[in-house]
Each structure stands twice: as C-alpha cells, then as structure tokens.
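Thread: quick sanity check before group meeting

JM: Hey all, I'm pulling together slides for Thursday and realized we never actually wrote out the predicted structure for the chain we discussed last week. Dropping the sequence here so it's in one place. If anyone has concerns about the input, flag it before I start.
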Amino acid sequence: MRLIVYFIAFALSLFGLSALDFNRFLKRKADPLRAQLLYILLAMCMAYLIGQFFMAVMYSFYDPLNPQI
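JM (edit): ok, ran it. Output follows.
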C-alpha cells in the first residue's frame, strides 16, 4: 500500500513540476544532466512529503484495534 501511494505521489509531483520553467531558475549554461537530476530529486522529495501526508491522513481514520467494517 505504501509503495503504491509513493508511486502515485511521484507521478503527481512530476506532473506538477512540469508546469514550471526550470530554465529560469538555473544558470544560463547549466549542464542538462544536472538539471534533470535536480528535477528528479525535487519530484522524489515532493512525492515523499505528499505520500507521508496521505498515509498519515489515512491511518488517522483507521484504528487497527477496533475495525469498523
């Protein structure tokens, strides 16, 4: 479950970051490999934070000792 949430959050963060123009924030002669690495690392960081948030919200409503099913 956790891995699925992280992959969905990673896809959403990649989609969200695609709206930004990274060329504006980088040096004029930035290495494209470094720019792509920065893009992927930012997406991974955002995916971790988004995933942690959603899992905390999901688990706050679920009590494993007293399931209400």
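AS: nice. The longest helix spans residues 32-61. The chain has two helices and no strands.
JM: adding both to the slides.
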